[in-house]
Structures are given as structure tokens and as C-alpha cells.
Amino acid sequence: MSGPNGELPGRAAERHALDAVIARVGTRSRTVLGTRSGRAVLVEGEPGIGKTALLRASAADARSHGVRVLEGAAEQLERRVPFAAIGRCLGIGAPDGDPRVRRVAAMIRGEGQPDAMQARDADFAIVEAILALLDEWCASGPLALLIDDVHWADEASLLLLHRLGKSLATLPMAVVCAYRPVPDEGLERLRRSLTARDARVLTLGPLGDDAVSKVAEDLLGTAIGPRLRRLLRGASGNPLFVTEVVESLERDRLIRVAEGTAEAVTSSVPQSLASAVLSRLEWISDEGLALLRAASLLGSSFTVSDLSTVTGHSAAKLVEPVLEVVRCGALTECGDRLAFRHDLIRQALYESTPSRAASHTAVARALARSGAPVERVAEHLLLGAGYGWDGTVDWLLNNAGTLILRAPALGVELLGQVLKETASDDTRGDTLQLMLAYALLWDGRASDARERAEAALRGLHDNALRAELLWVLVQADTVSGQLEGAAQRTREALAPGTLSPEETLRFQGFLSTAMYFLGNLDEAEAAARKVQERARGTEQTDATIDALQTLVGIRQVRGEIAAAVEGADHALQSARAQPMNTHRQVALQLIRAACLFELDRGPEAQTGLEAGFELAERSGGILLATCHMCRATFMFHSGQWDDALAEIDVALELPAYLGIPRAFQGLAALIAAYRGEFATAKARLAAADQVTTPSPTTTYYEYLVHWAQQILLQAQGHRQEALTDLRQGWRHGFGPVTGRAIPCRAADLVRLALEAGDRATAEDVTVSLELRNASEQHATLRMRGIAAHCRGLLDADPAVMAAAADAYARSNWAVSRAQYHEDAAAVLAEAGRMDEARTELDTALGMYADLHADWCAEQAEARLGAHGVVRRRQRRRERRPTSGWAALTETEHRVAALVAEGLSNPTIAAQMFVSRRTVQSHVSSILAKLALSSRVELATYIAGRR
């Protein structure tokens, strides 16, 4: 359908539009350095209208601009196979490909995934790995990703395209998606997502008469006459139909050339595109037609090896028929694969193939015997309904685990279909039911998995499967946020005589973890001790590591921080001995990092956090959101509030099932409240209240929501209400995991209590801290400092307050440090030591200014002003502007410098010990503040400043 010089008749405008987008990311056609930025283009149109030809021409244009091209097409048969469409573009499966691509391929195959609980995590990890790969490639040069037949793309590939579209503005990358405008929810979501980000939409309509004539003239190599021109109007401007009509007339010798003009000698043409396509096949031998029918079962493209497998003929015997169908134009060569020249040819052959169900089953059997990927076998079994192959159930029993790992949605459909055909007295049905329950769980359908497992238990024949079905129920409740229900099921399963010793350990280990997150520390500890006792002298298992993790968490909550670090080190040694225990290693690293931060061992805490982060990103573990939360709280307490907000915004874009959005919104609200941005704080808290199914980890950070609420109450003049809430939290905890917030809120509580005349509460808090410090296992430098701080406030004793100075001087906790200096100023003022009070006030106000904590500064000035203390520095530090170079934070300045060096986001992330997504967020913020549109513009801008 393209001319001899690669022209596309009637498509000059569309090709020019695509070329303009690709030139923006290229090198040779770029006349203005700053125009190098990415964009998406959507090409839509009916079958045969020229979408594929336009993409091929664009690929050639991209290469002429020095752009690396990644191209591929989605396959109808692979809609249920995750990442199939994008995998074709990346060249996944090539034996000598990029090692980073091979790593992504291994992740897609499910290598290293221990169980169905991590399925959705794995998909997220794969998306991140592919985006990081594309990011790195973009750092080496511009890219164009061209993907055809997107209407058939699998859900995971559509998700990746959506995520990619969000970062195109900062990458030298063009993304071109071609599709038929069919009613498809996933396609429509992608279309809305990309168009909302300035994607160009090119709708290919019918060609005009002149363009139709040009297509025919290019095919015939000469001008065409008026009769042929009139005949071709029946092709409705569809270039594929035009091509088929012309070639059909040529094959039937119904075109004559005289005096340099081709003319038709008939007045009839095929009435439809389908009939025109089928007319091409009339000239093919029976052997060639049989080969094409077999090929049509395999999809739009395939290898000769595939054909050999399904036909039973050797590759040598297939040479002649393959050459024949290529010569007739039914197939074309596409690298090391063969492809139908247009999918309408494949569709016509496929629909005319007799006994398609039996044929698909035969293909499945042949592929299974050849060792083909399980998802390919499963697709054909599903299309064939297992017809004619007695080995279907046995194949599933042997391969369902791998299938669920790689393509859970496909596993759900196939297992469901096979179960319908399985006799009620077939004992294999129990195992199929269990596998289906796991497939549903892996596919993110927890409620359906629960329903299936409960039904299987009611009709169970094989009692040996009972424990596994109970485990599915426990996991389904857990991922649904119903931890209480999961714990209750676990207790019931642990009834005497229900489980084997090994199964008992597994359920007991889970119970210890569940009870920890539900705040029942005594039951959690008892369950963990039972696991340790029963497992004594045996190898470490998931259950024993769960027990160790629970005991470490309990020590942390109870304030035995040094012991918690020691326990985490021991547990990590056990977890590392089992490579599949990635999520447990992450959890232990995070607990250890939090304890080290509590001990003011900041660099060690950061190292531990990044170790956990790296594991979570590599596996996509559900603890990835917790890693972001841990980092954001470290940043908050360390005074890096802008970086904490950036981390929060990145984390809030994580999939809902990975997130703990209530905690993130709570921390963002707290920062906003301290800064006096009360409308923002209220909006963040309202968003937090919208979270209906928080994860267990949310309870660990629930104190942040309460903290923000208390600051808002104080700002609104409801200080007594704030005191009541804070006092309640001190006594009973702010969430199920009790005691989490006590150290960092103790001085606030004492201050509010004394202000309200509630000396009893202030004394209770102070004494309990002092008693806690009397125990060597609880005493830390920070805890001694907090206790002295509270005692100094209670007794209004400057000497006691001074005893806390050394602890705060070495502390990571910026807010507590600033508030200490404010309180020291107040105590000194009460003692009449006004010069010293002014010095402390100036120190506090300087710290508040660094944090932009305007509300804190106003409160401090008002409080000390009542004592006659005013700041020496009369000029308040100006707030950072919202645009321009001065608007950039310290971190953004660093990121900008690294971008100017040409480093990719993943490389910058590795240098700064943050995630690729966090760097991307910083880059977007930098570009917005500087009113720039690309990384190249940013590099030019920075070069101009030097």
C-alpha cells in the first residue's frame, strides 16, 4: 500500500504529523535543542485503512532521525497473557538480547516468585523494570515505541503504556499506538489517559479518489483508465481493499495495458473486503492452503518451528509450501518470523477452518509435547475446550502452578472451563478447585477466591487438601484488609487434629504476625514463642522467620530498641538463607532501619532502608509502599519536608493494593498544618478518611493522622480538645500497634497539659518516661533527652532542660529539636534569664524558618512574647518562591545538576538512594518551576547559568 519510494498515497498529512512528533525526540532534524521532548500519538481506523503501513513508514522516518525504534504488535490470541504486547516491542525472547531485557523476561516468566500472594506485586515490579529500562535507553539516545493492533493488547501492556504516557514529557521518546476503534474498556482508558497528556489523535478515514488511483498506479506501475478508476470506487477508499481488487483482477487477467494505461475489461469486483481477500487464496495449492489454515490457528505471526510442531512436518518439508504462500502474498517475512500480510487474511482462513475447537486442542497437544510455554498451550486448550484430548486435566495438574504464575486470568478461565467438564466423582476435581482458588487470588480477585475455596471445602473429597484451602481463605481475607477475619480463620484452623505439624507451624507463624498488626502483642508473642518451640532443632521456615519478625516488632513497640536491632540482624540471617523470602527480608530491614533511626544512627538507618527498598523494587513487594512511608517519615523527622512531600506524592501513585494512602495523607497533612497551610491539611485529612480498607501497615503509622488532627485543633483554638485526644493516645495508643507515637509526642503532651492546668497528666507522662529510662534495655540517648525535656517543663527548671541539650544536638529529629529550643526559651524566661531565652528563641525560630513551619514560628513568638521575649532578628526569612531557579529545593538543585550531566533517572536514583519514580517526580517539578518542557531544555538552562 506504499509507493515505490515509500510514499503513502493520501496520507501525507498524517505522516507529516507523525514525523513532527518523532523529530522532536530525534537528533538530525532537531533545529532547536529545546524541542526534544516526548509525546504519544494514537492512530485509529478500520481494518485495512493503512495503520500498519503508516507505522512502518514512521519507523523508517524515525531511523532517519537517528531514533532507536522498538516496534511490535499485539496478538488476539495473547490478550490474557501479561506483557505479551509490550514484550514483542522489547524483543523479549531473543536469545542474544540485552541482559536487562532477559532479566525482565525472567520476571515475566515468574522466576523467583514464591506464591500467589505476591502476584500483583510481581506485575508492578515488571512494569517498573520495563519503565526503568526504557528510561536508561532514553539516556543513551532517543526512542520511538511503535505498537500496532493495540485493541488486542493485554491488560498489563495497556497499564504500562498508561504509566509511560505520564512521563513522556520528560523523555526523548515517541509512543505511537495503532488500533481499531472497537468498544473496549481497557483501550478507552488508555486513550483517555494519553489524550489527557497531550497525545495527538490521527483518525485515518477513506482515501480520496486521487489517492485510490495512485495506490493502483503504484501497484501496476502505470496509469489507470477511467473504467478501472470507477471500479475502484467500490473499495470505499480502503487501501487494502484497493490492493486486493487490483491484484485479483490481475490474477484473473482482467486488466489490460495499452498505450501506457491499465484498463479493466470487466465491470464486476468483489463485493466485500473479505471476499477480495479470499480470492487471493484461490490460486494456492491444497498443500499451501493446509499450511495457511494451520498457521491461522497460531496467530498473526509465528515461526517455521511452530508450523513444524503443529503440522508434524519437518522444516525441510515445509520449505516449498512456505515459499508458495509467501509468493502469493498471503504471508510475509518479519525478521525470524512469518506473518500474515494482513490479519484479515488470517481471520478469513481461520473462520473457514472446519472443526476449529478440535484443531486448537490438537495444536495444544503438539505444543505441550514440544515443551512450548504453558500459556501458549493454555490459550489453545481454552479455544478448543479441551476437546479430544484426554490428557487435558493431567496437563493442568502438572502445569497449573506455572500458568497461574505467568497468566492468572488465563488460568482462571481454563480451570473454570475444565472443571465444568470434570465429573463430580473425579477425585482430581478437588485439586483443580484448589488451583482455581489460587488463580483467582493471584488475579487479584480475593472475594471470588474466598467463595471458591469455601465451596471446595464443603464438597471436599481429598482431606489432604483441606489445609491448603484454609490457607487460601486466610490469604484472601488478608489481602482484602480483613485481618480480624483472617486471624479468626487461623485460630479455627489451629484446632487440635486439623493440621499436620508442618501446617500448624505455618498458620501459627501467620497468627503471630496478624496479632502484632492488630495490636494484641501478648497473643502475638505467645504465638511466635510456640512456633519457636515447635520448630526447635529444625531448619528455618517461613513460619519461623515470621515468628522472629513478630518478636522483633514487639521489642521495637515496647521500646527495647537495641534488642530489636539485634533480633532483626539474627532474623535477617535466617531470611537470607531462603532467597524466596524477599518480602520478609524487606520487612526486617525496615524495622531495623526504624530502630537505628530511633537510636540516632542515621547513616546506618539509611543504608538499611535502601537495602529494603532495593529488594522491594526488584520484587514489587507489597512492602514497597511501606518503604516509601519509612523514607518519608525519616525525611520528616530529619527536617527534609519538601523531599518528604515529594516522596508522598510518588507513593500515592502506587496501585491501591500496594498503598497505605491514609498514612501518606496523614503525614502530608501534618506538614501542611505545621506550615500554616490549613486548607491543604484539611483536604489531606479528608482524603485520608476516604480510605476504607487500610493495609495492616497503616495501623503502624496511624499516629500521624492523629498528630495532624491535633495540630489543626490547636490552630483553630481547640487546645483542650487537642489535649484530650493526645492524652487518650498516650494512654491507649493511636492505633492497634500501641505505643508507636509516645516518644515524639511526650513533650507536646506535657506542654499542653501544663497550659491547661492538668499537672497530673504532665507528671504522669514525665514519671513514666523516667521509669522507662531506669531500665537499661529501654534507655537510649534520645529517650533520656525526652525525659529531661519533660521534667524541665514540669519543674520549670533551666538546669534540667539543659541536660537534654546534648541529646537533641545529636538527634535526627528536627521538629523535636526546634520545639526543645522553644521550650528552653520559655523556661529560661520564667526564670528571668531573658538574654539566654532570646538566644534559644532565635535558635528555634531559625529552625522553624528552615522548615517553613510558619505556624510553629507564630506560636513560639506569641508564647515567648507573653513572657516579654522578642526575637533579635526582626526580619522573618522569606518563603521560597513558587517559580524560577530560587523555587527549587536543595534536592531539586542536585537532581537538576545530574540531569544536566546526561544521567538517566535510574542512574540518578542509584546515586541519591531514592527510587526512579521519586527522581521522575523531582524532574517534573523542576521543569514546572522553570517553565521548561524537556530535560534537554533543562540542561541548556543550567549550562547558561554557569
Give the SSE map.
Elements: H1 12-25, E1 39-44, H2 51-64, E2 68-73, H3 84-90, H4 99-108, H5 119-140, E3 143-148, H6 155-165, E4 173-179, H7 185-195, E5 200-203, H8 209-220, E6 223-224, H9 226-232, H10 239-251, E7 255-258, E8 261-264, H11 273-279, H12 286-298, E9 301-302, H13 304-311, H14 315-327, E10 331-334, E11 337-340, H15 343-351, H16 356-370, H17 374-384, H18 392-406, H19 408-421, H20 428-442, H21 446-458, H22 466-479, H23 483-493, H24 501-517, H25 521-534, H26 542-557, H27 561-576, H28 582-598, H29 602-619, H30 624-638, H31 641-651, H32 661-674, H33 678-689, H34 696-700, H35 702-715, H36 719-732, H37 742-755, H38 759-774, H39 781-795, H40 798-803, H41 805-809, H42 814-830, H43 834-851, H44 854-865, H45 890-900, H46 905-912, H47 916-930, H48 935-945
Parallel strand pairs: 1-4, 1-5, 2-3, 3-4, 6-8
Antiparallel strand pairs: 7-8, 9-11, 10-11
Helix pairs in contact: 1-2, 4-5, 5-6, 5-29, 6-7, 8-10, 10-11, 12-13, 12-14, 12-15, 16-17, 17-18, 17-19, 18-19, 18-20, 19-20, 20-21, 20-22, 21-22, 22-23, 23-24, 24-25, 24-26, 25-26, 26-27, 26-28, 27-28, 28-29, 28-30, 29-30, 30-31, 30-32, 31-32, 31-47, 32-33, 32-35, 33-35, 35-36, 36-37, 37-38, ...
